[in-house]
Automatic annotation (TrEMBL), chain A:
This is Protein translation factor sui1. The lineage of its organism: Eukaryota, Fungi, Dikarya, Ascomycota, Pezizomycotina. PANTHER family: EUKARYOTIC TRANSLATION INITIATION FACTOR SUI1. Pfam families: SUI1. Belongs to the SUI1 family. InterPro entries: SUI1 (IPR001950), SUI1_dom_sf (IPR036877), SUI1_euk (IPR005874).
From TrEMBL, chain B:
Keywords: Initiation factor, Protein biosynthesis. It comes from Sordaria brevicollis. This is Domain found in IF2B/IF5-domain-containing protein. Belongs to the eIF-2-beta/eIF-5 family. The keyword Nucleus does not apply.
Amino acid sequence: MSIENLKTYDPFAEADEEDSGQTKQTQEYIHIRIQQRNGRKTLTTVQGIPKKFDAKKILKVVKKEFACNGTIIGDEDSKMGDVIQLQGDQRAKIKDFLTNKDDGLGLDAKTIKVHGF
Amino acid sequence: MDSEEPSIQRRTSRKSVAFTDEKLVVDADGSVTMVASPTDEIKETAQSHSARTPPLSAALGAFTDASQATHDAQDAAAAPAADDGLDLSLMKKKKKKVKKEDDADAAAADAPAAEGDGAIDLTMKKKKKKKVAKEDDEFAKKLEALNLEGKEGEEATPEEDEQDGDMEQGTGIWAHDETKTITYNPLLSRFFALLSQKNPDHASTGTRSYKIPPPQCLREGNKKTIFANLPEICKRMKRADEHVTSYLFAELGTSGSVDGSRRLVIKGRFQQKQIENVLRTYIIEYVTCKTCRSPNTELSKGENRLYFITCNSCGSRRSVQAIKTGFSAQVGKRRKMQG
């Protein structure tokens, strides 16, 4: 019988790479925002998709799936990274897409923040 | 457990921020009057908050009712006077409800009951029984719980008053030398009954929702929305107007200004419900204390340009994120070409 608390684990050791990367990713939220255009038209912007995903490919899939147009806005000067901009209110759909494990990105829902009304 | 679970579930899933059902009327001189306009959704929440404790104690009263009806007068006499007085006051309240069909001697029966002695005559007992039956819908939840419990409990009897005895007087299954295993549900209901009885303010403050007046939205022209009672809401939340304003703008992805009478003019068309949603998230993020869920907090700029929320009721302190606008796409006219 082993004592649970006395594992051979050094709490002062440097956290390994995998671990720190994971915690960093959880702090970096993915922001899904909505913006009003003229009339009842809206834009959805997705900001902060992890770098390991190709924004272009995501956009291609998403455009087909949501039947909407969209674009990638590269903000080199600011540190926002690539922003995917979609036409219409796609917040719920894009959130589903980002969290879906089977045919989505399979991200953790906690990292996603949906803004707007 | 399963019978108690729905209510607990409801308590957690319920919106922690509710908007008052009163219609707010702001006079010209700035005085605010509230006109009640019942809305079913809000009323439901209000009911569930304010009446959280009474049902428990009322249920307790119901238990004692039933047991008193079945148990002999000796038990009632043995009951501590203080406890009895509490119960009977509740009974009296209930009695008032059914008094219209009761005859005059109910009032006569009331008087000894209020004194809390064991001299309860038979007619009164009968009435009590009737009352329990009458208030069936009110205690439907409780009864359902008992029924469910009776279904799954092995040795628990289906009869309500036999099963749970009188927890006040220590009879039935609550007797000191009773060896029968008490099932979870009566124990749970006893716990809550005692809890609400011993410290009534504790239960009521813990579950009350935070109410702010509903935002008033007017349309200015075709493209702007006026948020009329922002200063009042901010005062209620004890937050700076600018902070709330910047949060609103960041969340709605728009801009705006404050007009002469301190109303907020937001660019874009927004409905009251949408503003409400944003305010709700604001309150969850920046007003309520995460530890004790009390809205009695203060937002202050601490050292290092960080914002801190200090709770006035539990004293906890936590940092909150600064409001960030994030990316906002170019809408409307094209940006002027650089260079």
